[in-house]
Design goal:
Elements: E1 2-8, H1 18-31, E2 36-43, E3 50-56, E4 59-66, E5 71-78, H2 84-95, E6 98-105
Antiparallel strand pairs: 1-5, 1-6, 2-3, 3-4, 4-5
Helix pairs in contact: 1-2
Length: 116
């Protein structure tokens, strides 16, 4: 399952804090039942945002932030028994975000992908 969510109304300072965002996404991955393999987060400096990825055995979680708009784009892709919706809920709660425009897409349904 691939879940995309737009998160708004987030404190701009939090959207610039790569270490805090990494902790939030890793915590959400664990809560969703996924196994974290690695993570990489990059702050673009000054008042700019962060791009981050948490690589999972079950796929990935990514975030891209725009502090000037108090906005983050979230992408949660998981297979097997992991629960991507739970990760989205946890991230939104930890960011104290308004969740908007959530899209869910089942991937691999036509090819018999493993873990389905």
């Amino acid at each position: 399952m691939h879940v995309l969510a737009d998160l708004g109304g987030i404190d701009a300072d939090l959207l610039r804090d790569a270490a805090a965002l990494e902790a939030i996404l890793v915590g959400a991955a664990n809560e969703a039942g996924a196994r974290v393999l690695s993570a990489h987060f990059h702050h673009f400096g000054g008042e700019h945002g962060v791009t981050g990825v948490v690589l999972l055995a079950e796929s990935h979680i990514t975030i891209h932030t725009w502090p000037e708009h108090r906005f983050a784009a979230l992408d949660v892709f998981m297979c097997g028994n992991a629960r991507p919706e739970r990760a989205v809920e946890r991230i939104a709660r930890d960011l104290r975000a308004e969740v908007d425009n959530v899209r869910r897409c089942e991937r691999g349904e036509h090819v018999g992908a493993p873990g389905r």
